[in-house]
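Appendix B, record 7
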Amino acid sequence: MLEKLKNHPFAVETFFKKSIVLTFAITKEELESLLPDCLELDTYDNKWAFIAVAMVETEKLRPKGFPEFMGNDFFLIGYRIFVKYKNPKGKIFRGLYILKSETNKKKMEFFGNIFTHYNYSTTDIIKKESKENTRFESLKSKFNFTYSDIRDEEISLPINSPFIDWKTAKKYAGPLPFTFTVKENEILIIEGVREKWNPKPIEIINYSFDFLKKFNFSDVKLANAFIIENIPYYWKKGKIEKWK
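Structure tokens (predicted):
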């Protein structure tokens, strides 16, 4: 019974005050071994695969349909691989495969680990805002990044990004609609629903993520970075499929 509770047994809604996603390009050969058999990498140019690092500032997160006053505000931090899943009927889903999930509050860790397979851990999140920049950092998780708050249509792609332009890069702007959890011969599919989804490019001034360093990837390139602000969002009840 407790294990079934982890399968997202009800829909959840929130308000994304801010969602910042940095996407890193890594050669596909180095990520393939991290995936279960039923998933494949969502690659670009048949060479690059991607890990998204998302920092999401949520407000009033609660079971869908519950009144707003029962919701809670959290930071959610996620490390996800861009993947594709082809179900037995031949339908292809683009989505994300979870590597690590963090939050800034024990309450979210507790309930998140009852109702999901995301294995949340609690960490510190420090947010520093200046006139032109915003910085997030965590001493416990050993990450930090700073981005410019100046919105400029002429922002350049990150140096060494494999993408040729922002239009192409936007196809790999997380979070994607689906998130997958794989267990034995079953796959749990969580669909996120959003409106007015228009990610804006941002300039990353500096960054460091200790979690990514632990994999000892030979080459990690910042491929893109986007921000989304002030939109409602909800996750549907989990759906389980047999994949073999």
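Remarks on this record: The longest strand covers residues 12-27. The radius of gyration is 18 Å.
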